[in-house]
Amino acid sequence: MVQAIDKHGATKGILMGMSRILRCQPFCTPGYDLVPDHFSLKRNWEEPAKSEQEKIHLHQH
After folding, report:
1. InterPro entries given for it (predicted)?
2. DSSP string spanning 25-43?
């Protein structure tokens, strides 16, 4: 949510973060959900760049 607020401002960033939290449940398709360049409440299905994948992997451990 912090990245969304930094990129899109407080109102849009909070909306994007809340929609992301609501998608985080067992019946949702798993995958990356990076903050998109344009405001959207839908999941961003793009695969992250290699360096972003490494950051995610390091953060999980």
Report:
1. Membr_insert_effic_factor_YidD
2. STTSPPS--PPPSS--SS-
Sequence spans of domains, the chain: 2-60
How much is the pTM? 0.61
Q: Which helix (H) or strand (E) holds 22?
A: helix 10-23
15 is written with which tokens? 């909306």
Give the angle 21-27-28 at the CA atoms, nearest 5°: 50
pLDDT digits 0-9 by tens, 25-59: 788 777 777 888 888 877 776 655 555 555 555 55
The C-alpha atoms of residue 23 and residue 49 are separated, in whole angstroms, by 22
Residue 6 CA to its chain's centroid (Å): 12
